[in-house]
Amino acid sequence: MARPDELTFAPLGGVGEIGMNLSIYGLGNRHQRSWLAVDLGVSFGDEEHLPGIDLIMPDIRFLEKERNNLMGLVLTHAHEDHFGAIIDLWPKLQCKVYATKFSAALFEAKCAAERNPPKIPMTVVPSGGRIELGPFTVEFIPVAHSIPESHALAIHTSVGTVLHTGDWKIDPTPIIGLPTDERRLRELGDEGVLALVGDSTNAVRDGRSPSETEVAATIKKLVGAAKGRVAVTTFASNVARMKAVADAAKAADREVVVVGRAMERMVQVARETGYLDGVQNFRGADYYGHFPPDKVLALCTGSQGEPRAALARIANNDHPQVTLNKGDSVIFSSRTIPGNEKAVGSIINGLIVQGIEVITDRNDLVHVSGHPRRDELRDMISWVRPQILIPVHGEALHLSEHAKLARAAGVPKVMTCRNGDLIKLGPGEPGIIDELPSGRLYKDGAILEDSKSRAVVERRRMGFAGCAFVAIAMTDKGELVDDPEVDLVGIPEKNVAGEIIDEIVFDVVVSTVEGLPRARRRDADATAESVRRAVRAVIAENWGKKPICLVHVLMV
Q1: Residue 458: per-residue pLDDT
Q2: Top-level CATH class of 6-207+369-450?
């Protein structure tokens, strides 16, 4: 007798971390499954640990192998951690992509900014709409978040319904877009939900996330009270915040000047899709200097301390069009993403030294999260009443706290997992049944590398301990043709005694070569290895660190 179809779930990114989201759902048996992918996002490199790495993406080896069984890729919303990897990874999958109007328009604008983007077919789905993808029926349920058209996905199958929440919060007054559809979520609960796969980002925070309307009121008050120029920086994707800033500027009789490419692109997409209807036209950065200080407001990119973004350049006084002076104000209408604290702190300190007033969420309600706090998580559970709850979208602490909350709320089965775990949701007892290949890909310039990439490992080592380059020319009899060339990069010039390290290394190279048996000197590889060991040892002795050492021996 044939075994019944199993419904499975596996995160390939976004669990145990915030960012790089990729979830897959499978329906079938162990030999043949149809797959549905949800989101395909990035996280961002850390210069300290991953020097030169721009983006980090999920390893999609498993989906590549299963691409003939992949029914499609469905997007919950258009934040980079949910759709930022599509341009780079879609060519390996070649599947259809489904998104609502705003997400599709933003993706089109993102592709237009690339040099040679692949032609990716994007199917637009209406908010609240349904699509049939093989054995999956996917329903887009509106939820409030910090970007327009965020959706939870109700994935209906023969085995049961899964609610994949995406990023969400409960905000009855979201300024732009629809509030979270409580009525439809309660209906789903009445119909029966097998599993809830849910956002854990704010599971450590009690209470409820405040509304965007409350932030708008604070910004209006601050802009109205400001005497000099005002700059506001926020996530470019937060169109509701953009509208709040525009309304505050209008009330204070200020013109809005948009500064930064990402912000310009978002304004264009928001206008095209109707989300800024009725909002006054904004000006380009070249108009900034034409207005008196109390008649202008700069809406800037750079809330995360990005070194080439508008705010960093303004803070460093090297922006070609926008300047701030003593008595002006900067409002950080954003939260600092973990890992960016140093960069943001540096900009804030730079502004304060110049006598500019800096306002952050530490002293005023100028930002709210787009993710649910604990009372909101309890509400979702009470509406949906899932049989199984799986926390995702969070680090270990967030997942653990979400799991504890779900157990306390009476969810019959709560399961925590890691990237790569394949979980059987039903029929029968749920559990982890397999481990799928998972990992990270690094975007290094134009190249995608895996996490064991030689370049990444060596660059990290070079950043810590520099590099020594040695070039030696030898005759076929094993004699030095000329003095060796020594070049030390990122290594101190002198040791603690004041001796020049280049000269110490040069002497060691000569003495090492001359001390080798003649037969060994005629072997280029053996000579290079002996010199490499000697150079690393003498630098370690004089400095306390062992650099990368590259020795080239030329036999002439």
Answers
A1: 80
A2: alpha beta
For CATH 3.60.15.10, list the domain ranges present in the chain. Answer: 6-207+369-450
The reported pTM is 0.90
What average pLDDT score do residues 232-236 get?
A: 96
Q: Which residues pair with 230 in a beta bridge?
A: 297, 329
Pairing verdict, β 161-164 and 97-99: unpaired
8 A C-beta contact, residue 375 and residue 183 = no
Classify domain 466-555 at the CATH topology level: Ubiquitin-like (UB roll) (3.10.20)
The CATH fold of domain 212-359: Rossmann fold (3.40.50)
Q: What are phi and psi of 14, to 5 degrees?
A: 95, 0
- CA 186 to each of CA 26, 182, 194, 489: distance values in angstroms, whole numbers, following the listed order: 25, 6, 14, 64
Q: How many CA atoms lie within 13 A of 95 on its CB side?
A: 28
SS3 95: coil
**What is the distance between the alpha carbons of residues 20 and 39, in angstroms, rounded to a whole number?**
9
Q: Rounded to whole angstroms, how far apart are CA atoms 50 and 457? A: 8
Q: How far is CA 363 from CA 191, 192, 333, 366, in A?
A: 45, 44, 11, 9
Is the bond into 427 cis (omega within 30 degrees of 0)? yes
pLDDT tens digits for 342-382? Answer: 999 999 999 999 999 999 999 999 999 999 999 999 999 99
Query: Where in the chain do CATH 3.40.50.10710 domains reside?
Result: 212-359
Please spell the DSSP secondary structure of 327-393, one letter per residue: T-EEEE-S-PPTT-HHHHHHHHHHHHHTT-EEE-TTTS-----SS--HHHHHHHHHHH--SEEEEES
End-to-end Cα separation, the chain, in angstroms: 76
Q: Is beta strand 485-489 parallel, antiparallel or unpaired with respect to 467-474?
A: antiparallel
Q: Supply 496's token pair.
A: 């603690």
The pair of three-digit structure tokens given for residue 506, joined into one six-digit string: 């040069």
Pairing of the two strands 467-474 and 440-444:
unpaired
List 309's β-bridge partners, or say none: none
